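Query form — protein Urease accessory protein UreG

QUESTION: What is the three-dimensional structure of this chain?
INPUT:
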Amino acid sequence: MPETPETRSFRLGVAGPVGTGKSSLIATVCRELADELRLGVITNDIYTDEDARLLRSAGVLDPERIRAVETGACPHTAIRDDVTPNLIAVEDLERDFAPLDVVLVESGGDNLTATFSPALVDAQIFVLDVAGGGDVARKGGPGIARADLLIVNKTDLAPYVGVDVEQMVKDAETARDGKPVIALSRTDPASIALLTAWVRSMAHVVRTGDHTPVDPGPMAPHSHVGENGEVITHVHTH
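ANSWER: The structure tokens for Urease accessory protein UreG are given below.
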């Protein structure tokens, strides 16, 4: 079935380093909005579908609406350099469950430079967590500075890791020059309400054609370990 305005969903990317709580955030969005919006999820991992299986086991959506892409390479490759596997997965999900309101695409855990191509998603959330350190937000990077929404996650852990959440949020707001920041805990209903209100609002803006996807910018040079254990340093120019 060809893509039409009736079958094209709002595609929302969720990126951030390993362990920041991307899957938990997606589960929260699905749990809160599944009765209101028609949702689907695509997860990304290098060699496994574990995140998809965890979300299915959480019971937040019909399991068939949660699908996995095994990238076989650096997580950022499949969300920025060659988005074809993810784009096919999103379009298949939209076709099978048309019409969907929102498809959330979860990046595999990556570093602070990973961002989604606007060819894949309409908007993107970048996720940090307090356990990663209170200074992370002010270090900047394309996701922190220019994603549509920045989440400072797991704020309930702040007393245990010695992080001043208020200062971390202020640093993030400075780095983002006015773009929205939400301090989130899955145990805090007020912060969850802010997140779901943002998703509703952005879904509406995308549906009405009043939003243009913005490329957060090229990734900085970075390194990763290849399959043979060799350290590879490279830069992405598109």
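ADDITIONAL NOTE: The two ends are 30 Å apart (CA to CA).
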